[in-house]
Amino acid sequence: MSSHPLNWPEESFCLRPSTLDLTALAQEVYRLTCRTDFSAPGFCLVNLGAALDSRAQRQLMVDLKQALAALHETRTASTLVYQSAGRFDQQKSTGFHRDGGPAESLLMLGYEPTGVKAEVSLADFSRFARDLGLTPEAYLSQHSPLSPPSREQLQPYTTHLPSFAKTDFQILCVNNSCLPLSSDQPGWQGVFHSALILTPDATQQRVINSTQIATAPKGTPDALTEDELQTFITTTQVL
Q: What is the CATH architecture of 15-234?
């Protein structure tokens, strides 16, 4: 059994960069999120402070993805490519889940400042599956994380993020994978995520700039065109 915690203290996953060194930030995000064992949380939260705007946040997300892809290429035979990008106003609670998409993927979610109070939680279902003697895929086929028994069993493996500051821009990176644990063929070990909306407010927005990123052989193009990516960065539309 691993000696690493089942749930993680804030200082182990929350980054507050005083200066924007993109290379250094990418290294920390990669270390914390793109894990192939259970020595890291499988997620990280980057607090960018209030001296930013929405477009600058989205540009930074794109720049960070490029830095992560370059780093991934130095460590593996793969790169990182976009699967999707969009903006939406989320004011409905969601239970623990893994987003659809490739078996080795991550979510990069840009949270904008909002007065809508919410709690975000991550549950280490890959580690729980290992402790049950199952692969993540087998666990997903045999258990529903939305069922009361599964929610209760996942509680010891759950980390609750600190309350989101009303004035700060933040980026949450989540390992969205479902690969088996292997030392011979290391693959990313994913976590569930959930959101509990405490104060829905139709007069405000809770904007999330959402991107899904997957591993792919080097040379694979993004699923998004350059025009689509620029639209993601510059649009004012929120779905």
A: 4-Layer Sandwich (3.60)
